[in-house]
Structures are given as structure tokens and as C-alpha cells.
Amino acid sequence: MADIVGAGGIDGLARVTKVLTALEAERAELIQQLRSQRLASWDEIGQACGMTRQGASRRWSQQAQATSFGDAAAAYQQGRPPYPASAVDWLVPGNSHRVLDLGAGTGKLTRLLVDRGFEVTAVEPLVEMREQLAASVPKAAVVDGTAERIPVADGSFDAVVVAQAWHWFDAATALREAGRVLVPGGTLGLVWNVRDQSEPWVAELDRILHQHGPQVMDTRPELAAPFEQAERLEVRWEHQLSRADLLAMVASRSYVITLPETERTELLNQVSELLDSHLDLRGRKRLTMPYLTHCTRARLSATGES
Ligand SMILES: C[S@@+](CC[C@H](N)C(=O)[O-])C[C@H]1O[C@@H](n2cnc3c(N)ncnc32)[C@H](O)[C@@H]1O
Prior knowledge:
The chain folds into two domains: 2-67, no CATH class; 72-299, Vaccinia Virus protein VP39 (Rossmann fold). The protein has 306 residues and is of the alpha/beta class. Strand 4 (157-163), helix 9 and strand 5 form a beta-alpha-beta unit. The protein has helices at residues 2-5, 9-36, 42-48, 53-66, 73-79, 85-91, 108-115, 127-136, 171-181, 200-209, 243-251, 254-257, 261-277, and strands at 98-102, 119-123, 141-143, 157-163, 182-195, 231-242, 286-299. The longest helix has 28 residues, at 9-36. It has 13 helices and seven strands. Helix 5 (73-79) crosses helix 11 (243-251). Residues 66, 69, 80, 102-105, 108-109, 124-126, 129, 146-148, 163-165, 168-169 line the site of S-adenosylmethionine. S-adenosylmethionine binds at residues 66, 69, 80, 102-105, 108-109, 124-126, 129, 146-148, 163-165, 168-169.
């Protein structure tokens, strides 16, 4: 320790901070491994870190959830819905050429962008998701990276889109990075599919899904300068899926993936029970899931500056 602090002063403080930051990253990685392989509960992790269960889960579960998708990449690809055509057309101006799909996952949106003739680069940090993406959308360029450090040159895209992922990012850093990689006047588009709870069986499904705590996400975020005033669009649509697809959709939710095994199995059993017993669902081979798709779009100012 004395080696690190040295003669103290501002240089000593900088050295201590560097070591602490590296150790903190190491601790977060260990916790991520323990959770994703279900080797420890939040109680045990809290104890090992000298804090309560709630303190530990509040501090690390967001990160554990953001990085959990790799464990369920196949379920994600099977169960998650695509995005309605009118939303995609609104999010990316037709005169765009180079489009960046950030937090692209298995490529649910990437495919729709490629089909419109855009030259698409998909950025995704998890290898399991990138593998699914590369297999299902071979025309897209697939890059390992994060929203906070996008590994592409300044001003190299006409549009950046983010589907179902902005809430996982450090918004201020991601906004700065999106501004950096866009050409002046380029567009940032964010989209979320939200299940329409005005349908009673969907409300019941969501009650089961969120019994261990609500998932809070802002699907109409404000976007600061150098982006201009955000515009919004909401699209109501329906997704047809099989019973197996719906169970895969449930299994691919981050808060379900990161539950302890017994709670996860119990939750999936409750969803099966709902499918077997609800008057609007039982005996049906195909289900109709109603969605409200929330879109936000903002242009980078023409100078690229605030
Ligand atoms: C709910 S999925 C959405 C995937 C895809 N965009 C879609 O619409 O299906 C969220 C994705 O964001 C990715 N992600 C999480 N944190 C990220 C970050 N900081 N930077 C980039 N991607 C991130 C996850 O790995 C995951 O693939």
C-alpha cells in the first residue's frame, strides 16, 4: 500500500484511485460471473462485500442484467418481437446511407434496416448475441463495442438507432458518443416495444413477470444538446406468436435470466399455467400480443455543436 501512496500528494491520490478503479472492475466482473452462472445469491454476495442483500443487488444487478442476455441469446432470437415497419421508416430518414445499430443484440432491428437497403453496422458487446446476429443478418457488419465507447470514426454515420437498449447505457456518455459518430444533421432514433397492458391477459402476464420487483425504464427519454428537440411517435400493432415463442420471450427478459434457478422455474411455471387457464388463451396454438412501440427521434444540430 505504501508503494502505491508513495510520497502522497496529488500523485499519490491519482495512483490510489487507479488501483481502486481496477479492483472495482475486477469485483464487478467476479459478481457478474457468480450471478450469470448462478453460483451465489445476492445475500451471499452482500455478505462477502460487507453490505446488505439489497445494497449489493441495487449496486450490481443493473450491470448483471445488462450483461445477462448472452445466456439466453437463442431464446431472445426466438421470442422477442421485431419492430413495426412504420416505426423503422420514421426512425431512419430514407435518405440515410450508413446506419449504426447500437446494442444490436441478435439483430431484430438490424435485419429490418438491411432489408431497406441501408449499409448497416451493428455494435454489440456480448459475443453470444453477435454470433446470432452474424448468422441471421450476414449482410450487416458486426462489431464488438459498447455505446459508451463506439469503435468507429467520427462523423461516419447518417443515422444511429438503438432498439430496446438505451436504458442499459450510461445515457450522457452514449449521447456524446452518438453525437461524435454522426454526421452533422444526422439522426439518433430510439425505440422500445412495450406490451399493451390494456389487454387483461397481458396485464396478468406482466404481474407475474414483475412479481420480484418492477422494471423501471424511461421509454420517452429527453435528449440533450447537441441534439435538437426530440420528436415522438407511438405505433400500436400486434405480434403473432406461438406458445413456445411466448415462453422464450419470457425466458429472454434480463430480470428472468438473472433470477435464482428455483424462482426462475417457478415463474416460468406460472406463465405456463396462465397460458393453460386464461379464457382468452387456453387451447390456442397462436397468440396475439398487442404492443405499443415508443419511438424518439432527434437530429444532431447541423454544426454538430450545442
Ligand atoms: C434488450 S437487448 C436489445 C437488442 C436489440 N437491439 C433488439 O432490439 O432486439 C439489449 C442489448 O443491449 C446490449 N447492451 C447492454 N449494455 C450495453 C452497452 N453499454 N453498450 C452497448 N450495448 C449494450 C445487450 O448486450 C443486449 O444485446
